[in-house]
Give the backbone structure.
Amino acid sequence: MMGVALVLGAVVGSFLNVVVVRIPRGQSLVRPPSHCGVCGKPIRWFDNIPLLSFLWLRGRCRLCQTRISWRYPVIEATTAILFALAAPRVGWGVELVGAWLFVAVLVAIAAIDLEHQVIPDSISLPAIAAGLALSFVTPSRVWVDSLLGITVGAGIPFAVIILSRGGMGGGDMRLGALIGAFLGWQLALLSLFMAVLLGGVVATALLVAGRKGRKDRIPFGPFLAGSGVICLLWGNALLGWYWSSFTP
């Protein structure tokens, strides 16, 4: 079954590459079919197999020999690994469908925010609705928890936006709401806390290394998305450890 999760994750990752390229440009996800971004020639099915085709072609277009971005195999491999990790943690059932959808959305949002410094509403808003809808059919979470998760996940970034006059963006606020819709308010709160820690560590490292200046913008979405994945997989264990260690 783990093999099924890996293969399905790689296939979904291949589709996410289309999402990452086309959604920020306002292009259709269906038309035209997959094609080389340089020569424009359609990509044949045997050159579009996740991960394997990149290796066979040695990272180049078969027709024009243009280098293929490493983003393609990285997203495919990342999605495959996360799908495989989620399966035993969540269990094989309806909740796994929601977990896989959650992972796919977060991978796409993180990649887009890294490249374009934007979190598209066309991804986050439908995902929020999907997370809330799934709370009505999953046994481990009730809709009230999902609704509270949306409130907490969006409310804290909204407060930061108001108090800091732009310390976060509206896309980050909607991403927080998305995480809350799927994970509930406690894990949404934990995700926000972890994202701030991760973002602070990485930002400090980039400043010290001279890769970024104090006024350079560092997208927060990837940190929030990464924290959301961590909380999906290990969030309840982290909360259990915290309560057992720091509360009487």
